[in-house]
Specification:
This protein is mainly alpha-helical. It has a single domain, classed as lambda repressor-like DNA-binding domains (434 Repressor (Amino-terminal Domain), Orthogonal Bundle), CATH 1.10.260. About 55% of the residues lie in helices and about 0% in strands. Helix 2 crosses helix 3 and helix 2 packs across helix 4. The longest helix is centred in the C-terminal third of the chain and has 16 residues.
Length: about 110
């Protein structure tokens, strides 16, 4: 599953405007991520994962499907900081690769996320 597919499934019963506000995106920007029109950078991915209480590694690993148990997001309110301390070096490298590709070749990012 791609990042957009996972996020669409996880957020299908949630208010997208609340999520986008907590992440620091416009509702349209978050919708573009959900539909695959836009590919988020690593900082945005980490913020989304934190807001939704998701494992960032799960989001970026295409081989992992939806978790059997989903924990609903905690209350939104505090500022969000990207925390990569709990990611493996492989996951950090993958995020860096996505960021680099997003800056240079947006189309390449789509290939990386497939």
């Amino acid at each position: 599953m791609t990042i957009s597919q996972k996020l669409e499934e996880v957020t299908k019963f949630m208010r997208k405007s609340s999520i986008s506000r907590a992440v620091g995106l416009t509702p349209g920007g978050f919708t573009n991520i959900l539909t695959g029109v836009s590919i988020p950078g690593s900082d945005t991915l980490l913020k989304i994962a934190r807001v939704l209480n998701l494992d960032p590694g799960w989001l970026i690993d295409d081989s992992r499907s939806l978790p059997a148990v989903y924990v609903s997001p905690r209350e939104i309110g505090s500022p969000i900081r990207a925390d990569t301390s709990n990611l493996s070096s492989k996951e950090k490298e993958r995020l860096a690769e996505i960021d680099a590709a997003a800056a240079k070749e947006p189309r390449r990012v789509v290939e990386l996320l497939k």
